[in-house]
């Protein structure tokens, strides 16, 4: 059993080292607008789809240089380009049309329902990698506090080496807010909101897809087998 696991891990490592196409999702070629859950934001070699209520406001494409394009009261500062805002507990899904995807880094900020002053951290940005076996891998980062004027600022986040080098069937990005008990939750009464930009990703080249799929499927099967023993 251990030998089989080592072989599957070796395949996964080999697949991860195969040829891949890197990209940067910037939203610059899009017109500011609003989205309901399930709507497509952008499609290049990755699909960016809004997560959230299909009958309500779940996201917005915002021009940071134009105050009139801000659809919420307290848009973040420090980004004069287009960015995506997940609103009302909404999120963003990245997928690659049947291929795999990995997420390397992004810029992010909290989107407050109104200007907020104080030193408190209200929540975190969550990145969820979706595995073939239904299991998820999570990483998160605190938004940080607002400045003296109640503004939240964009910050850059390089995901861990382990997460950034893993192929997923999709990646979800969303916010969670702290409760009185210290838990970070979503849904959060439509207050879990965030902004993201400059999402650096990779997708495997066609010559590597079969090897990646074989290695991930093997790992999933071995995980299920181990859990049943």
Structure commentary:
It comes from Roseateles asaccharophilus. Residues 202-225 form the Ice-binding protein C-terminal domain. This is Putative secreted protein with PEP-CTERM sorting signal/MYXO-CTERM domain-containing protein. InterPro entries: Ice-binding_C. Keywords: Signal. By secondary structure, the protein is α+β, with helices and mostly antiparallel strands. The protein has a single domain, classed as Jelly Rolls (Sandwich). 18% of the residues lie in helices and 38% in strands. The strands form two sheets. Strands 1, 2, 5, 6, 8, 11 and 14 form a seven-stranded antiparallel beta sheet that branches. Strand 12 and strand 13 (184-185) form a beta hairpin. Helix 1 (2-16) packs antiparallel against helix 3 (206-228). The longest helix is centred in the last third of the chain and has 23 residues, at 206-228. The N and C termini lie close together (11 Å).
Describe the protein's topology.
Layout: H1 2-16, E1 20-25, E2 33-36, E3 40-43, E4 47-51, E5 57-63, E6 82-86, E7 91-95, E8 102-110, E9 123-130, E10 136-142, E11 155-158, H2 161-164, E12 170-178, E13 184-185, E14 194-204, H3 206-228
Antiparallel strand pairs: 1-14, 2-5, 3-4, 4-7, 5-6, 6-14, 7-12, 8-11, 8-14, 9-10, 9-12, 12-13
Helix pairs in contact: 1-3
């Amino acid at each position: 059993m251990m030998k089989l696991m080592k072989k599957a891990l070796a395949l996964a490592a080999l697949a991860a080292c195969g040829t891949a196409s890197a990209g940067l999702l910037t939203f610059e070629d899009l017109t500011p607008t609003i989205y309901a859950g399930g709507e497509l934001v952008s499609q290049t070699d990755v699909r960016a789809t809004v997560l959230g209520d299909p009958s309500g406001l779940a996201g917005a494409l915002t021009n940071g240089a134009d105050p009139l394009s801000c659809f919420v009261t307290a848009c973040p500062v420090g980004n004069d380009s287009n960015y995506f805002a997940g609103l009302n507990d909404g999120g963003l899904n990245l997928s690659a049309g049947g291929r795999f995807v990995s997420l390397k880094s992004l810029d992010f900020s909290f989107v407050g329902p109104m200007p907020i002053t104080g030193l408190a951290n209200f929540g975190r940005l969550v990145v969820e990698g979706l595995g073939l076996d239904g299991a998820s891998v999570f990483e998160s980062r605190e938004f940080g506090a607002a400045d003296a004027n109640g503004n939240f600022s964009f910050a850059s986040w390089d995901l861990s080496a382990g997460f950034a080098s893993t192929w997923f069937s999709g990646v979800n990005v969303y916010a969670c807010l702290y409760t009185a008990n210290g838990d970070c939750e979503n849904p959060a009464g439509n207050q879990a909101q965030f902004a993201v930009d400059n999402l650096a990703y990779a997708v495997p080249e066609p010559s590597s897809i079969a090897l990646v799929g074989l290695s991930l499927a093997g790992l999933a099967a071995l995980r299920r087998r181990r859990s049943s023993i």
